[in-house]
Amino acid sequence: MATQLNTTDLDFDKIKDNLKTYLKNSGGAFADYDYEGSGLNSLLDILAYNTHYNAVNAHMAVNESFIDTAQVRANVVSHAKLIGYIPRSVRAPSANIALKLKRSSGTDTSATLSSGTTFETTVGGVTYTYQTLADISSSQYNSTTGNFEFDSIDIYEGTSRTSQFFFNDNNNQKFVIRDALLDTSTLKITVKDSAAATSSTTYNLYNSEVDVGKTTAVYFLTENYEGYYQFEFGDNIVGKQPVVGSVITASYLSSNYTASNGAASFTFTGAFPTNTALADSGAITVSSVSSGGAARESTESIQINAPRKFITQDRAVTTQDYESVVKTIIGDLQDVSVYGGQTLSPPQYGKVFISVKPQSSLFLTDAQKSSILTALERKRVITVVPEIIDPDYTYLNFNVYFKYDTSLTDRNSDQIKAAVLDKITTFNTTFLEKFGNNFRYSKFLADIDSTDTAIKGSLAQIYAYKKITFDNASTAGISVSFGFPLLGDIQQTNPIMTSTGWEFNSKLYFLEDVAISGDDTKRRIQKYYIDTNSTKVVEEREVGFLYPNTGVITLDNQQVQAPSADVELKVIPKSYDIPGIENKILTIDTSKTNIFPDANLSTAGGDIVPSTVYNVQPTTTTASFNPFTTAGTFVPHTMYDPVTGIGYSANTHEQHLLYQELGYTHTPPATSTGTTASGSSFGTGATVDTGTTATSSTTSTSTSTSTSSAPSYSGY
C-alpha cells in the first residue's frame, strides 16, 4: 500500500529516506529496487537536495519576515526602520579636562579655543587624537599666574572627516556616508544653495517631538543594507527639500570607539588662541578619564531595543520607558536601573532615579549625565523629576577553603587553586556586576565545588568593603549603605568596621567603631593614628556613626594630604546571602580573595564565622616563635593580621600553619614611622590615648587583647 510522504522532515538525509520509503511501499516497479547501487540513487539525491533547499529558503524567508527571528542584519534594521528605530552607530570616547593657557602678550581678558582643537594621548603604545567639537571661551584670567583657566573642556576621540554631495531633482535621493567608523552623534549636515553660495543652512536630525513643516530644515537618518548610514531630506511637505544644485556637506568624527577608553593623560597639539601659550605648570588636568567609546549596536541589541522603544512611543512614563531612552543615548552601557522614589524608605514622591553602569568605566561622565537629562526633558511626565545617581558598588572578597582528593585529579595544589580562582572570576561576571543581581552563598560554593571532581567540599568567609573619597574641596558629609546587616554585637568591644589609612599632616589616620553605652542602634566612629612611640592616639572620638543592623555608615568629611584620598570601609556581612537592590551592584575583588586548598580529608575544623571573641594574652615573641615545647606539645597562642591588626587564636598547629600562610605575625602591628595599617588589637608596647587632640602619651603595657576565633574549616 502506498504511503504518504512525511513533509515535516527538512534535513537532506531524512528527506531522501522518506523518498525511498515512499517508493518501496508504493507497490510499483521500485518496490524491490537496490537504491544504493543504482543510478536512481543519484536522482534521489537531486530530489532530496532540491526539496531541502526549497525548505530552507521557505523557512528563512518566513524567519526573516519578523524582527525577533531574522538573522540577517539588513533585515533586522529594515524591520526596526518601520517602527522608527535607528540603530546606534559607533560612539567616540570622551574625556573632560581643565586647561591653563598663559597670556604671552597683549591685554586680553578672555581666550577662545576653536572647535577642532586637538589633544593627543597614548594607550597601549598607540597614539589617538582627541578634539573639541565646539568653540569654548574662558573669561577666567588669573592675574597672579597670568593664565587663562578653562575649568571644563569635553574632548572626543576621532578624526574629523567631511563628505560632499550634490542634490538633483530626485525626490527619493539618498546620500550614503561610506565610513563604518562614523559617530552619528557628531554628524553635522549643512547645505549651500549652490557651489558659489557664501552662506549655508544647518539641517538637524529629525525628531518626532518637534513639529516638522514644509520649511523645517531636517534630515532623516537610516542604516542601509550595506551597514552604512545614509540620510535624506524632506519633500517640502514634511521637511524642507534643498534646491536643485545644492552642495551638501556632511562633517563628522570617525572614531576608534573602545580602543582609547581609559586614557588618563593628554598633550596639547592644536592651535593656541591668539597671544597665548601653554601654561608653565599644571597646564592640563584630567577631570575624568576617557570613557564612553562603544562599537555600533549589535543585531541582537536592535532586536531587543527596537520593539521596546516603539512601546514607549517616545515618552517616558514607566521605568521601562526610562530604560529605553537611556539605552538609545548611552552606547557604552552595560546595565541600567530605574526605580521610583516612592519605593524608598522614606519615600521621595515625584522623583525617578536612574543609575547607569558603563561598559568601560565605573561611572558616567558629567557630559553623559547631561545628555540623558536633556533627552528626558522632552519625554518625561512634567510632574516627575528624573535624577541620575551613580551606581553604589559593594566589593566582596573571600577566604575560600576547600578539601580535595588527590587521587581524583592530576592537578597539583597550585593548579587547582588557580582553577578555583578562574571559577570565581566567571561567577562574578555571570551572576554579579549588574543591578538587581544577588549574591547567593550556596550557588557560590556549588560553583567552586564544580571546578574539579576531586573537590569534596568548600567553605568561604565573606568580607565586604566600600570605597569612599575624602575631598579637601568638600564640606559635605559622607553616607554609605551596605544594604545588609553587619556581623557583630552592638555593644561588643572590638570594632565591627575597620578602614584603610589616609595621610594628613604627616600622620596616617584610620577609622574604627566603638560601642556607645546604652545605645542599641548605633556605634560611634573614631579617628586615630599611631604615633612615633607606637601609641594609638584617638584624635577625634566622634567623626560619624555606624548602624550595624542596617549597614549604614555616616561620616564627616576628613582633611587629606592630597586634594583627595580613597579609603576603604571594611565589614563582615551578617548574612551570607547579599541583596543587590536599587542602584547597588555587587562585585568580587579577586585581588583580595585568598584560596586555601587542603588535601587532608580527615582533619576537622571549627566555625568559619569569627563570631566568638576571646581575651587572649598577646604573644610578644618574634616571627621565629616555636609553637612547641621541648616535650613536643603545641602551645596555643595569638597571631595577628598585619593589615587589620585583629588577633586570632591559633589553638592547633594546623591553624598556626594557616595563619602563617596568610602572612599573620606573632606580634601586634605597631611602628615608629606612622605607617601601620589599621588595627583593632594592640598588644604589649601599644597604648591608646583617647583624647581629642594628638598628644604624646606614656607607653604602658596592655595585658590582653580581643581576638576573634579562627575562620577555619567546618562542615566536612
Largest sheet: 8 strands, antiparallel
- The structure class reads alpha+beta
What form results from the Cα inertia axes? flat
Based on CA atoms alone, the radius of gyration comes out at: 34 Å
Taking the alpha carbons of the first and last residues, their distance comes to: 68 Å
How confident is the prediction overall: mean pLDDT? Answer: 83
Query: How many strand segments?
Result: 37
Structure description:
The protein is of the alpha+beta class and 716 residues long. The protein is built from nine helices and 37 strands. Among the domains are: 12-63; 94-158 and 258-291, no CATH class; 160-254, no CATH class; 313-390, GMP Synthetase, Chain A, domain 3, CATH 3.30.300.200; 463-592, no CATH class. Strands 1, 3, 4, 6, 7, 15, 16 and 17 form an eight-stranded antiparallel sheet that branches. A hairpin with a 6-residue loop joins strand 34 and strand 35 (647-650). Helix 5 packs across helix 6 (366-377).
